[in-house]
């Protein structure tokens, strides 16, 4: 538990499902009042609001497109109207698509960049403006991807957008460090979320995905939410401009599986009775 978070207010974009949902619930457990931005999943957002409120904190749900500056300004205005302030802003909204680069319509490329990078900047800008005007030592947390590091065939647009988020995070962190506004980034690896549902259709798909993670399993969103709670708290007050890669070791040797090594590792873990899940 991070006691300093109790009573704070957090805005989470793309908060109705996946990592956003898990982060909202974790913040609620910490005593944080939560504002959820959602795009189209009103039923999921409403169910989440009720779950958040069960922890004894307040919650709002506000529909909006994160690439639309007016919608994002409305999100911030409604938050301030209800709570008077906010202290944490999580840029979680993101999209991806599987398509070969030589056949990719430029509109598809633009859309992914628009949501993942431009939308993140809009959120950062509005949060920074609020923190500066009120002299808050606020925390901005961007959700990127391990693919800001690892190239991914058929996902050039996605990788480019997430690489951009990494450097955006660093640039803003340096720009606002003197006023104690922190901007950090989380780069999740293989996570069991709706955006990755196509990759985990069957049990065999899940087993195959596990094989590509050195720690031996695909993580749940709650493991990323734990990092988001840490970065929002005073326990991380000397950390800014950093990317915390939460990927089970995936980025240590991406796409280079040594199955002889894996067989030896399996023997070792069996001998010492280590469970990977």
TrEMBL record:
Do the record's keywords include Oxidoreductase? yes
Q: Which PROSITE patterns match?
A: ADH_SHORT
Question: Record's Pfam families?
Answer: adh_short_C2
| Catalytic class of the enzyme | oxidoreductase
Q: Which domain of life is it from?
A: Bacteria
Q: Is this entry keyworded Oxidoreductase?
A: yes
Q: Cite the GO molecular-function annotations of the record.
A: diacetyl reductase ((S)-acetoin forming) (NAD+) activity
Q: Which Gene3D superfamilies match?
A: NAD(P)-binding Rossmann-like Domain (3.40.50.720)
Q: What UniProt keywords apply to this chain's record, in alphabetical order? A: Oxidoreductase
Biological processes per GO annotation: bile acid metabolic process
EC annotation from Swiss-Prot or TrEMBL: 1.1.1.304
Query: What's the catalysed reaction?
Result: (S)-acetoin + NAD(+) = diacetyl + NADH + H(+)
Q: Which InterPro entries match?
A: NAD(P)-bd_dom_sf (IPR036291), Sc_DH/Rdtase_CS (IPR020904), SDR_fam (IPR002347)
> What is the annotated role of this protein in its UniProt record?
Catalyzes the irreversible reduction of 2,3-butanediol to (S)-acetoin in the presence of NADH.
Q: Which family does it belong to?
A: Belongs to the short-chain dehydrogenases/reductases (SDR) family.
User: What NCBIfam families does the annotation carry?
Assistant: PRK07231.1
* Name recorded for this polypeptide: Diacetyl reductase [(S)-acetoin forming]
Q: Which species? A: Macrococcoides canis
């Amino acid at each position: 538990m991070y006691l300093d978070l109790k009573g704070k207010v957090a805005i989470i974009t793309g908060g109705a499902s996946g990592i956003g949902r898990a982060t909202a619930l974790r913040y609620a457990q910490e005593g944080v009042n939560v504002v959820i931005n959602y795009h189209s999943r009103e039923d999921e957002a409403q169910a989440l609001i009720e779950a958040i409120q069960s922890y004894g904190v307040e919650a709002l749900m506000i529909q909006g497109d994160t690439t639309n500056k007016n919608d994002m300004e409305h999100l911030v205005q409604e938050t301030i109207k209800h709570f008077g302030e906010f202290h944490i802003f999580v840029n979680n909204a993101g999209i991806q698509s599987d398509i070969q680069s030589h056949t990719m319509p430029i509109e598809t490329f633009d859309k992914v960049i628009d949501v993942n990078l431009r939308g993140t900047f809009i959120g950062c800008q509005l949060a920074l403006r609020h923190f500066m005007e009120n002299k808050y030592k606020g925390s901005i947390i961007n959700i990127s991807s391990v693919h800001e590091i690892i190239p991914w065939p058929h996902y050039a647009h996605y990788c480019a957008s997430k690489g951009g988020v990494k450097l955006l995070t660093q640039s803003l962190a340096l720009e606002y460090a003197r006023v104690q506004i922190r901007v950090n980034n989380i780069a999740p690896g293989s996570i069991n979320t709706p955006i990755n549902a196509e990759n985990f259709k069957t049990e065999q798909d899940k087993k195959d995905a596990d094989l590509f993670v050195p720690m031996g399993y695909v993580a749940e969103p709650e493991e990323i939410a734990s990092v988001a709670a840490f970065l929002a708290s005073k326990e991380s007050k000397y950390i800014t401009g950093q990317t915390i890669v939460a990927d089970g070791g995936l980025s240590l040797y991406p796409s280079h599986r040594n199955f002889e090594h894996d067989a030896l590792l399996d023997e070792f873990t069996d001998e010492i009775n280590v469970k990977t899940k």
